[in-house]
Amino acid sequence: MAKLHVVALGARLRGWAAEAREDYLRRMPRGYEVALVPRPPRGARVVALDERGREFTTRQFAAQLARWLAEPAPLAFVIGGPDGLDDKLKRDAAQLMRLSALTLPHALAEVVLVEQLYRAATLLTGHPYHRD
After folding, report:
1. Cα–Cα distance measured from residue 110 to residue 131, given in angstroms and rounded to the nearest whole number
2. CATH code of the domain covering residue 74
3. What is the pLDDT of residues 43-73, one digit of tens each?
4. Tally of domains within the chain
């Protein structure tokens, strides 16, 4: 079972965003589980979302996700609050990743991240959701 952790710092999601996020979480392919947690688990490989991070295409992200999941460490994606992420967290992260060159509000970033995790998982399991 691939367990992915999403750490969303800051404000709670409004209804529309929580509903969209939950829809993707419910649809996650068998063998993939996403847990919403308040902080990364001990020993986790942290992927910090940051505007200066690496940008992936969908297929590159799916391939990278497969590589991360092949390692024994838990995997945690961290989304910053209104003021972004602490510099130390970014320095200590295994990877800085950006979802877009645009600045996204917290709620939208969380929905986009969960949708991309869903999309990557469907690619890795052969589900026809993603179209090139």
Report:
1. 22
2. 3.40.1280.10
3. 999 999 998 999 999 999 999 999 999 999 9
4. 1
